[in-house]
Amino acid sequence: MDQQAMPAAPVPSGKRTSLWIILVVAILLLAAAAVFGVKIFLNRQEKGSSLLVQQAIREIKADLDQYIQTNGSLEGFDLVDDAEDAVKSREINAKWDFEVVPLTQADLDQLAAGGKTDVLPYRLILATANSEAGRLAGRMIWWEGDNKRYHGFGIDDLTEPAVEEEESAPSESAYVQKSRSTEAQTGIRAMSTAYNVYVQTNGTAEGYSVDQALRDARLGDATLKHWSFSVEGNPPRKFIAISTADSPSGAGKQVWYDKDDEKFHGYGVDNAALPKTPASTGAPAQPVSTVAVSPAIYTVGPYTDVCIRQTPSLSGKVLVTVNSGDRLQGLGERTVKNDTVTLKGLKYSGSWIKVSTASGVTGWIHSATLR
């Protein structure tokens, strides 16, 4: 007699619920383990970076002590360049800025008055991560002469050396400024890269806003909270960051990158003030001497986003941009005075020529961009 297969008994609903709970708990445990593992990996990576920087500081200290032993003082020792020359690792030298903070003469006199004569003439050897260090930018590690110990990133909870009173305060504030300026410089580099990518893709910066550039740059929330970003020119010739009220350095600090000299300026760099454009000063435009030339047809050289300006000056308002191969009608006028421009990393001196585009826009273009 054939036996018929019996149907499988249904799983009780209570048991199914228990299985789901076990599965969810297992997933949560795996996620927690993954997060914990990533944290351990990052901590080990940061610890490794910290140890490499401490080794670099030891190299600087050995070189510094040898110099003092040979020369009797720090005189003639460049507290930044000579310090960085002592670091053997190129990678560390590229990602970290080093400097020696000396004791002032007043400090040495005070120590001598207290009977302490056998002291080193410097109080700190400081390393600050620059924008090349990525997410570590602005972190500090230092060797402190007072207690002969290392402090800072990857070592203890200290984030910057303590600021002392009187003579030592100016040098302390200088490297604190340098550290905080690094955050702005990192943001400016990222925004500049976003503009470059856009121009390479679209052939022009026209229509590309600062807000869009900041989104493409993917700056961190802290950077956007501490700094307000803007540009001058189209395509930009200056990338500017101004600190907000939420910044540890207070509101109104200015850091900018000038594409004409390819350098950073301002707070924590050279402490220069951001030059005002003629339009922002409110001063009337000065007359420009020009001479008549024969009208001619000009062709734009091998450049993109060449500016045609309202006035014959690098600070003149940009009316439109033209590109390699575009033809322009010369209007028989050029400036007497020459201006220097930077094209593809090279500096050229030349006059401004009045031209008209095919669409009828009339303005001034620098002669170095034409052929």
Structure, explained:
The protein is of the alpha+beta class. The protein is 36% helix and 24% strand. It contains eight helices and 17 strands. Strands 9, 10, 13, 16 and 17 form a five-stranded antiparallel β-sheet that branches. Strands 1-2-3-4 form a four-stranded antiparallel β-sheet, sandwiched between helices. Strand 11 (306-309) and strand 12 (318-322) form a beta hairpin. Helix 5 (168-202) packs across helix 6 (210-217). The longest helix has 59 residues, at 13-71. It starts with 12 loop residues before the first helix and ends in a 5-residue tail after the last strand. The model is unreliable at 164-172 and 278-285 (pLDDT under 50).
Task: Summarize this structure as a short list of keywords or feature phrases.
8 helices; alpha+beta; single chain
Radius of gyration: 30 Å
SSE string, helices as H and strands as E: HHHEHEEEHHHEEEEHEEEEEEEEE
Global outline: flat
Q: Gap between N and C termini, in Å? A: 104 Å
Helix content: 25-40%
Q: How many strands in all?
A: 17
Tally of alpha and pi helices: 8
In terms of structural class, how would the helical and strand content be classed? alpha+beta
Largest sheet: 5 strands, antiparallel
Quote the beta fraction: 15-25%
Mean pLDDT: 77
Low-pLDDT runs: 164-172, 278-285
